[in-house]
Amino acid sequence: MRITVITPLFPPDVARAAVYARELTRHLALQADNTVTCIHYGQFPETVLGVTFISIPKDVAKIKRLVHFGHALYAQRHNDALIILNGPSVDVPTILLSPFLPKCGVYIESDQDAATGSRGLYKLIPYLLKKRFQTLRPSDTILNRPIIHPLHNYPTAARRTYDQAWTQHVTDIKNLCQPN
Amino acid sequence: MPTELNTITNLLLEQGLTLDSHQPHSSGERFLMQAMTTIAGQKFILLGHTTAGEKVVIKVTKDAAGKQEINHERTCRSLINTLNFAYDVFAVPTELLHVTAGGYLINVQLYIPQAVSFLERPLLEQFDFALRAFTAQENSRATTGAHLDLIKKTFGLMETKDYLSTFTNFVEANRADDAVSPLLKQVYQTLTTRALRVTQYGNFLTHNDFVPHNFRIKDNLLYLLDFSAIRFGNKHESWARFLNFMTLHHPALEQAFLTYFKSNRTAEEYESLHLMRLFRLGEIITYYRQTLPKSTGNLHTLNTARIMFWSAVLAAELQNTRVADSIRQAYQTTRDALRTEDEKQRQVGLH
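Predict the joint structure of the above. Result:
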């Protein structure tokens, strides 16, 4: 399956949603039948084996970045599935281009601050995206990777739970991505 | 200096401030200390009391660069927690007075008492406090053009080209030293070939002197004392300074952080940290190199020993290994034998 992941944040960005984006692309790329392309804002993303990155620099005017992002997204329109990680800078070009985008898509609310913080007219965009695509909200277990503390015992149980949650999460995404 | 201190004492009395009889920050090697990569002005750092009996820290200077440094630090202190992309990074000591009198700029802040110094705390507490401080810094990154415009003028921004050009100054300053010069040239080569890694983790909030004598812990809050060293740059600049410091003062804490990094961060981050440690080691070697013409006798011998020690640390870091305990212990013995009584006194409870 040819999958496009689009995200406002990706490490070196440090937000939880950025770490989630990296983990998601990594898990998707681990599956032999997947080809993963990630469009993200920023430059020089941390490498993820098997993932092709398209970087949209942020140090230009907002409208210019949105146009660059939209252009890159449009070029991916023939891929099999689209995974949208929420945030205004991704939501806006996605809704504008939605008629051209793959039918199979999942809108993931990984940035819960952005999801709850939207106001006014902007609230409408996530609403429309949720109507257009399947929707998923990652659990706290997925979003909070257990820290391996050098002065405590290895968090074996927490890591196991985390890994199992991810396996289930990727399966859920895959099921939602299947063509009707 | 005593005459100047008398003048300052009188000026402070007019402001309702009394100086303590013991002034730990004005003795020992303090006179040699000038930061290399910040404004680097000269100033007195004094302890005193208000008429209400509150203990205070007083920064006083008539030096133009010193005034600039105090004003810059004040701006950073007031702005840091108001940036729209930085959240509650550091607790800030309360400012009581900022005034010009008799040609001197005087800044007075409430003293932050701490029950025990950072290095006297258990290893686990040290680790957790420091990790919290570093992750708070990491959460502030200037990514958009608007962010960069906001921070460039106030805090300053170190980009990869700035790290490289600064390092050429380090190479130049140590050119005559046959032992150190090849090491620094090797570091420069390494930084140049891996410049992308430095850029990758750029534009983060950093504090380029984040070591225990620049912060105090009270009621579980970490108060930053020196805001003049805040700038935006590579994410691992603060980490690098801290870990290099711990190489000498607390290797177990250094080791804990290296383990943390290997277990929780990517290989790319670890490489960036390594490059920043090399950069900061070049800086400290050059710092001591520049003190040599200003020092004599035991202090000159000590500063030469410091250059040799930090060069050994640098040589080890270049190989991604740690300096041998025997080298560290030998240096500590030399240092303790050569330090003046004043300096030994100044060091008590400092870290």
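The radius of gyration of chain A is 16 Å.
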